[in-house]
From TrEMBL:
It comes from Bombus pyrosoma. The chain crosses the membrane at residues 21-43, 63-87. One of its GO terms (cellular component) is mitochondrial inner membrane. GO terms for molecular function: copper ion binding; cytochrome-c oxidase activity. Component of the cytochrome c oxidase (complex IV, CIV), a multisubunit enzyme composed of a catalytic core of 3 subunits and several supernumerary subunits. The complex exists as a monomer or a dimer and forms supercomplexes (SCs) in the inner mitochondrial membrane with ubiquinol-cytochrome c oxidoreductase (cytochrome b-c1 complex, complex III, CIII). This is Cytochrome c oxidase subunit 2. It catalyses: 4 Fe(II)-[cytochrome c] + O2 + 8 H(+)(in) = 4 Fe(III)-[cytochrome c] + 2 H2O + 4 H(+)(out). It is found in: Mitochondrion inner membrane.
């Protein structure tokens, strides 16, 4: 989860987040190279007193400064498209989970487990042992290292189901179903929030997901149904 002094991304817990962080590092590296080179030329022109007033055109230089930006854009473009289509791919899900957005809470359903469903409301902040505006009364529980299909929609206005450490952000649109592949690579508790302004209490509908072993998940779901 995010903390006040955090400068970079949250710790990754999915292949999607790993790819997004790698792509961010690539684009930042390219940007720093461009800024450094541009700053060097600006300082050189400012401090250099020797100017070639007779130079009117140079085809070689024009070709170079046209090709270099094109190559840089291609280097950025291909990884971006690869990640975009990789995130949209649903890879043989073991079972499905429905997430429905409401004003201002989330409801979840496990269709393959006797249609078990529950609502998830934000807990009031009562002690320093809680994470303010992030903890819920009922958390979403899934097994880790198992591919799942997440089906997301809304009952009223547009919401957005977002968990940064998983690299997931999907809009919940009324009358429309969006889906994504949900895969956690390690156990833990992960937090998110609605990322689409949805009304007065938009900031009070957190997401709390617990990733655990498959046996613990089965024992929990058997007790619930």
């Amino acid at each position: 989860m995010s903390t006040w002094n955090m400068f970079m991304f949250q710790d990754s817990n999915s292949f999607y987040s790993d790819n997004l962080i790698s792509f961010h590092n690539l684009t930042m590296m390219m940007m720093m190279m461009i800024i450094t080179l541009t700053s060097f030329f600006i300082l050189d022109f400012m401090l250099n007193n020797f100017l070639n007033l007779t130079l009117l055109k140079n085809h070689t230089i024009e070709i170079i400064w046209t090709l270099i930006p094109m190559i840089i854009l291609m280097i950025i473009c291909f990884p971006s498209l690869k990640i975009l289509y990789y995130i949209d791919e649903i890879m043989n899900p073991y079972f499905s989970i429905k997430a429905i957005g409401h004003q201002w809470y989330w409801s979840y359903e496990y269709p393959e487990f006797n249609n078990y469903e529950f609502d998830s409301y934000m807990l009031n902040y009562e002690s320093i042992n809680q994470f303010r505006l992030l903890e819920t009364d009922n958390r979403l529980i899934i097994p880790f290292k198992i591919s799942l299909r997440m089906i997301i929609s809304s009952m009223d206005v547009i919401h957005s189901w977002t968990i940064p450490s998983l690299g997931i952000k999907v809009d919940a649109v009324p009358g429309r179903i969006n889906q994504l592949n949900l895969f956690c690579i390690r156990p833990g508790i992960y937090f998110g929030q609605c990322s689409e302004i949805c009304g007065m209490n938009h900031s009070f509908m957190p997401i709390m997901l617990e990733s655990t072993s498959y046996n613990i998940f089965l024992n929990w779901i058997k007790k619930m149904i």
